[in-house]
Amino acid sequence: MDLIVARDRSELLAARAGLGIGRAGRYGADGGALALVPTMGALHEGHRSLIRLAREHADHVAVSIFVNPLQFGPNEDFSRYPRTFDADLEVCEAEGVSMVFAPAAEVMYLPDRQVGVSSGQMGTVVEGAFRPGHFDGVLTVVLKLFNLVQPDAAVFGQKDAQQIALIRRMVADLNLPITIIGAPTIREPDGLALSSRNRYLSAADRVTALALSAALREGARQTRPKDILHAAHAVLDEAARADPPLVLDYLSLVHPATFTAVTEDHRGEAVLTIAAKVGATRLIDNVVLTLTP
Length: 293
Ligand code: PAF
Fold this sequence. Notes:
alpha/beta, Rossmann fold, Pantoate--beta-alanine Ligase, Chain: A,domain 2, 2 domains, 9 helices, 20% strand, binds pantoate
Protein backbone atom coordinates (compact mmCIF):
# COMPACT_ATOMS: atom_id res chain seq x y z
CA MET A 1 0.00 0.00 0.00
CA ASP A 2 1.23 3.53 -0.79
CA LEU A 3 2.59 5.66 2.03
CA ILE A 4 0.04 8.28 3.08
CA VAL A 5 1.34 11.72 4.06
CA ALA A 6 -1.05 13.70 6.27
CA ARG A 7 -0.44 17.38 7.03
CA ASP A 8 -3.33 18.19 9.38
CA ARG A 9 -6.05 16.68 11.53
CA SER A 10 -8.57 16.10 8.73
CA GLU A 11 -5.95 14.41 6.52
CA LEU A 12 -4.98 12.26 9.51
CA LEU A 13 -8.57 11.20 10.10
CA ALA A 14 -8.93 10.39 6.39
CA ALA A 15 -5.70 8.36 6.54
CA ARG A 16 -6.95 6.44 9.58
CA ALA A 17 -10.27 5.76 7.83
CA GLY A 18 -8.39 4.63 4.70
CA LEU A 19 -6.51 2.10 6.80
CA GLY A 20 -9.77 0.92 8.36
CA ILE A 21 -8.91 2.30 11.80
CA GLY A 22 -12.02 3.76 13.45
CA ARG A 23 -12.11 6.69 15.82
CA ALA A 24 -12.20 4.28 18.75
CA GLY A 25 -9.81 1.81 17.11
CA ARG A 26 -7.91 0.17 19.94
CA TYR A 27 -5.93 -3.02 20.19
CA GLY A 28 -8.03 -5.86 18.82
CA ALA A 29 -10.65 -3.60 17.21
CA ASP A 30 -11.48 -3.90 13.50
CA GLY A 31 -8.84 -2.31 11.32
CA GLY A 32 -6.07 -3.29 13.72
CA ALA A 33 -3.81 -1.49 16.11
CA LEU A 34 -1.78 1.60 15.29
CA ALA A 35 1.67 2.37 16.72
CA LEU A 36 3.19 5.85 16.49
CA VAL A 37 6.91 6.62 16.20
CA PRO A 38 7.28 10.34 16.99
CA THR A 39 10.40 11.86 15.37
CA MET A 40 11.89 15.18 14.38
CA GLY A 41 12.97 13.69 11.04
CA ALA A 42 16.59 13.29 9.84
CA LEU A 43 15.84 9.58 10.14
CA HIS A 44 18.74 7.18 10.63
CA GLU A 45 19.26 3.52 11.51
CA GLY A 46 18.12 4.21 15.10
CA HIS A 47 14.73 5.42 13.81
CA ARG A 48 14.50 2.39 11.53
CA SER A 49 14.87 0.18 14.61
CA LEU A 50 12.03 2.10 16.33
CA ILE A 51 9.81 1.59 13.28
CA ARG A 52 10.62 -2.14 13.18
CA LEU A 53 9.78 -2.48 16.86
CA ALA A 54 6.52 -0.59 16.30
CA ARG A 55 5.63 -3.04 13.53
CA GLU A 56 6.05 -5.94 15.97
CA HIS A 57 3.43 -4.35 18.24
CA ALA A 58 0.81 -3.13 15.79
CA ASP A 59 -0.78 -3.73 12.38
CA HIS A 60 -0.03 -0.19 11.18
CA VAL A 61 2.79 2.22 11.93
CA ALA A 62 2.53 6.00 11.79
CA VAL A 63 5.68 8.16 11.89
CA SER A 64 5.38 11.82 12.82
CA ILE A 65 8.00 14.23 11.49
CA PHE A 66 7.98 17.59 13.23
CA VAL A 67 10.88 19.71 14.45
CA ASN A 68 9.18 21.00 17.56
CA PRO A 69 10.16 24.64 18.26
CA LEU A 70 8.82 24.40 21.83
CA GLN A 71 11.56 22.04 22.99
CA PHE A 72 14.53 24.14 21.79
CA GLY A 73 16.06 26.85 23.97
CA PRO A 74 16.89 30.29 22.50
CA ASN A 75 20.57 29.37 21.98
CA GLU A 76 19.98 25.85 20.74
CA ASP A 77 20.06 24.40 17.22
CA PHE A 78 16.41 24.73 16.11
CA SER A 79 17.19 26.66 12.92
CA ARG A 80 20.08 24.42 11.86
CA TYR A 81 18.46 21.13 12.95
CA PRO A 82 18.76 18.81 9.90
CA ARG A 83 15.62 18.68 7.74
CA THR A 84 15.73 15.83 5.21
CA PHE A 85 12.06 15.27 4.42
CA ASP A 86 12.37 13.48 1.05
CA ALA A 87 14.98 11.06 2.36
CA ASP A 88 12.81 10.51 5.48
CA LEU A 89 9.85 9.53 3.30
CA GLU A 90 12.06 7.00 1.50
CA VAL A 91 13.05 5.47 4.85
CA CYS A 92 9.39 5.26 5.91
CA GLU A 93 8.40 3.69 2.61
CA ALA A 94 11.20 1.12 2.80
CA GLU A 95 10.23 0.23 6.38
CA GLY A 96 6.57 -0.37 5.54
CA VAL A 97 5.19 2.65 7.40
CA SER A 98 1.48 3.20 6.66
CA MET A 99 1.32 6.94 7.27
CA VAL A 100 3.53 9.93 7.96
CA PHE A 101 2.16 12.88 9.88
CA ALA A 102 4.16 15.97 8.92
CA PRO A 103 2.37 19.08 10.18
CA ALA A 104 3.51 22.67 9.73
CA ALA A 105 4.16 24.64 12.94
CA GLU A 106 0.90 26.60 12.39
CA VAL A 107 -1.04 23.31 12.39
CA MET A 108 0.47 22.28 15.72
CA TYR A 109 0.39 25.58 17.60
CA LEU A 110 -2.23 28.31 17.71
CA PRO A 111 -0.64 31.79 17.62
CA ASP A 112 -2.22 32.59 21.00
CA ARG A 113 -1.43 29.21 22.55
CA GLN A 114 -1.82 29.30 26.34
CA VAL A 115 -1.91 25.79 27.76
CA GLY A 116 0.81 23.15 27.75
CA VAL A 117 2.04 20.18 29.76
CA SER A 118 4.26 20.76 32.80
CA SER A 119 6.99 18.18 33.29
CA GLY A 120 7.05 19.01 37.02
CA GLN A 121 10.10 18.73 39.26
CA MET A 122 11.31 15.71 37.30
CA GLY A 123 11.62 17.89 34.21
CA THR A 124 13.99 20.30 35.96
CA VAL A 125 16.73 17.84 36.98
CA VAL A 126 19.68 16.29 35.08
CA GLU A 127 19.03 17.15 31.39
CA GLY A 128 16.24 19.52 32.43
CA ALA A 129 18.65 21.54 34.59
CA PHE A 130 20.69 22.35 31.46
CA ARG A 131 17.70 22.84 29.15
CA PRO A 132 15.03 24.81 31.04
CA GLY A 133 11.59 24.25 29.51
CA HIS A 134 12.82 21.48 27.22
CA PHE A 135 10.74 18.69 28.73
CA ASP A 136 7.61 20.86 28.96
CA GLY A 137 8.00 21.36 25.20
CA VAL A 138 8.56 17.64 24.59
CA LEU A 139 5.56 16.54 26.67
CA THR A 140 3.30 19.17 25.14
CA VAL A 141 4.06 18.09 21.59
CA VAL A 142 3.92 14.38 22.44
CA LEU A 143 0.49 14.77 24.06
CA LYS A 144 -0.72 16.71 21.02
CA LEU A 145 0.64 14.02 18.69
CA PHE A 146 -1.12 11.35 20.77
CA ASN A 147 -4.41 13.28 20.57
CA LEU A 148 -4.09 13.85 16.83
CA VAL A 149 -2.83 10.44 15.69
CA GLN A 150 -4.72 8.45 18.38
CA PRO A 151 -2.30 5.51 18.45
CA ASP A 152 -2.66 2.41 20.61
CA ALA A 153 1.08 2.38 21.31
CA ALA A 154 4.05 4.69 20.83
CA VAL A 155 7.74 3.84 20.55
CA PHE A 156 10.58 5.99 21.93
CA GLY A 157 14.32 5.39 22.07
CA GLN A 158 16.04 4.63 25.37
CA LYS A 159 18.83 6.98 24.24
CA ASP A 160 16.64 9.84 25.47
CA ALA A 161 16.24 8.10 28.83
CA GLN A 162 14.80 11.04 30.77
CA GLN A 163 12.42 11.83 27.91
CA ILE A 164 10.92 8.32 27.89
CA ALA A 165 10.76 8.25 31.71
CA LEU A 166 8.80 11.53 31.64
CA ILE A 167 6.50 10.29 28.86
CA ARG A 168 5.72 7.18 30.95
CA ARG A 169 5.05 9.54 33.89
CA MET A 170 2.71 11.67 31.75
CA VAL A 171 0.82 8.56 30.59
CA ALA A 172 0.42 7.45 34.21
CA ASP A 173 -0.40 10.90 35.65
CA LEU A 174 -2.86 11.84 32.90
CA ASN A 175 -4.39 8.35 32.38
CA LEU A 176 -3.56 8.24 28.69
CA PRO A 177 -4.78 5.03 27.00
CA ILE A 178 -1.48 4.42 25.21
CA THR A 179 1.18 1.75 25.68
CA ILE A 180 4.71 3.18 25.74
CA ILE A 181 7.41 0.95 24.28
CA GLY A 182 11.11 1.63 24.87
CA ALA A 183 13.63 0.72 22.18
CA PRO A 184 17.33 0.04 22.82
CA THR A 185 19.97 2.54 21.71
CA ILE A 186 21.58 1.71 18.37
CA ARG A 187 25.33 2.34 18.15
CA GLU A 188 28.00 2.61 15.48
CA PRO A 189 30.49 -0.30 15.61
CA ASP A 190 32.89 1.97 17.56
CA GLY A 191 30.25 2.68 20.24
CA LEU A 192 28.96 6.13 19.21
CA ALA A 193 25.20 6.25 19.85
CA LEU A 194 23.27 7.11 16.68
CA SER A 195 21.80 10.61 16.70
CA SER A 196 20.55 13.04 14.07
CA ARG A 197 23.08 15.49 15.55
CA ASN A 198 26.06 13.22 14.72
CA ARG A 199 26.05 14.74 11.25
CA TYR A 200 27.30 18.01 12.80
CA LEU A 201 30.52 16.29 13.99
CA SER A 202 33.81 16.86 12.15
CA ALA A 203 36.22 13.90 11.90
CA ALA A 204 38.17 15.22 14.90
CA ASP A 205 34.97 15.90 16.90
CA ARG A 206 33.88 12.36 16.25
CA VAL A 207 37.05 10.91 17.78
CA THR A 208 36.55 12.97 20.96
CA ALA A 209 32.84 12.06 21.00
CA LEU A 210 33.72 8.39 21.47
CA ALA A 211 34.54 9.25 25.08
CA LEU A 212 30.82 9.31 25.95
CA SER A 213 30.23 5.64 25.17
CA ALA A 214 33.70 4.70 26.46
CA ALA A 215 32.91 6.38 29.80
CA LEU A 216 29.63 4.46 30.05
CA ARG A 217 31.43 1.19 29.30
CA GLU A 218 34.08 1.88 31.97
CA GLY A 219 31.41 2.86 34.49
CA ALA A 220 29.44 -0.31 33.75
CA ARG A 221 32.45 -2.45 34.73
CA GLN A 222 32.08 -1.24 38.33
CA THR A 223 29.41 -2.22 40.85
CA ARG A 224 29.20 0.58 43.43
CA PRO A 225 27.81 4.05 42.60
CA LYS A 226 30.98 5.87 43.74
CA ASP A 227 33.23 3.57 41.68
CA ILE A 228 30.93 3.74 38.65
CA LEU A 229 31.06 7.55 38.61
CA HIS A 230 34.79 7.60 39.32
CA ALA A 231 35.59 5.24 36.43
CA ALA A 232 33.39 7.13 33.98
CA HIS A 233 34.82 10.52 35.09
CA ALA A 234 38.37 9.27 34.44
CA VAL A 235 37.53 8.70 30.75
CA LEU A 236 35.74 12.05 30.45
CA ASP A 237 38.60 13.92 32.17
CA GLU A 238 41.03 12.54 29.60
CA ALA A 239 38.70 13.59 26.76
CA ALA A 240 38.55 17.07 28.28
CA ARG A 241 42.27 17.37 27.40
CA ALA A 242 41.75 16.18 23.77
CA ASP A 243 41.63 18.41 20.69
CA PRO A 244 38.82 19.35 20.36
CA PRO A 245 38.06 18.92 24.06
CA LEU A 246 34.96 17.32 25.49
CA VAL A 247 33.11 19.81 27.67
CA LEU A 248 31.00 17.95 30.20
CA ASP A 249 27.54 19.20 31.16
CA TYR A 250 26.82 16.33 33.55
CA LEU A 251 27.55 12.74 34.45
CA SER A 252 24.86 11.32 36.76
CA LEU A 253 23.77 7.99 38.14
CA VAL A 254 20.02 8.15 38.68
CA HIS A 255 16.88 6.13 39.35
CA PRO A 256 15.39 5.14 35.96
CA ALA A 257 11.85 6.22 36.83
CA THR A 258 12.50 9.47 38.75
CA PHE A 259 15.93 10.68 37.62
CA THR A 260 16.92 11.45 41.22
CA ALA A 261 20.54 10.59 42.08
CA VAL A 262 20.98 7.10 43.54
CA THR A 263 22.48 6.70 46.99
CA GLU A 264 25.55 4.56 47.69
CA ASP A 265 23.37 1.72 49.04
CA HIS A 266 21.07 1.67 45.97
CA ARG A 267 20.26 -1.77 44.56
CA GLY A 268 18.45 -2.55 41.30
CA GLU A 269 18.38 -0.54 38.08
CA ALA A 270 20.13 2.79 37.69
CA VAL A 271 20.81 4.95 34.64
CA LEU A 272 24.32 6.25 34.08
CA THR A 273 23.73 9.30 31.92
CA ILE A 274 26.01 11.85 30.25
CA ALA A 275 25.67 15.08 28.31
CA ALA A 276 28.68 16.85 26.83
CA LYS A 277 29.61 19.27 24.10
CA VAL A 278 32.18 18.43 21.45
CA GLY A 279 32.90 21.41 19.26
CA ALA A 280 29.51 23.02 18.61
CA THR A 281 27.59 19.76 19.07
CA ARG A 282 25.85 18.69 22.26
CA LEU A 283 25.58 14.92 22.68
CA ILE A 284 23.81 12.70 25.21
CA ASP A 285 24.16 9.01 25.98
CA ASN A 286 23.27 6.60 28.77
CA VAL A 287 23.34 3.01 29.88
CA VAL A 288 21.00 1.15 32.23
CA LEU A 289 22.91 -0.77 34.92
CA THR A 290 21.69 -3.28 37.48
CA LEU A 291 23.39 -2.77 40.83
CA THR A 292 23.53 -5.94 42.90
CA PRO A 293 24.69 -6.39 46.52
O1 PAF B 1 12.93 12.38 20.54
C1 PAF B 1 12.54 13.20 19.69
O2 PAF B 1 12.88 13.12 18.51
C2 PAF B 1 11.61 14.33 20.12
O3 PAF B 1 11.93 14.79 21.39
C3 PAF B 1 10.12 13.94 20.03
C4 PAF B 1 9.77 12.81 20.98
C5 PAF B 1 9.78 13.54 18.60
C6 PAF B 1 9.24 15.15 20.40
O4 PAF B 1 9.47 16.22 19.56
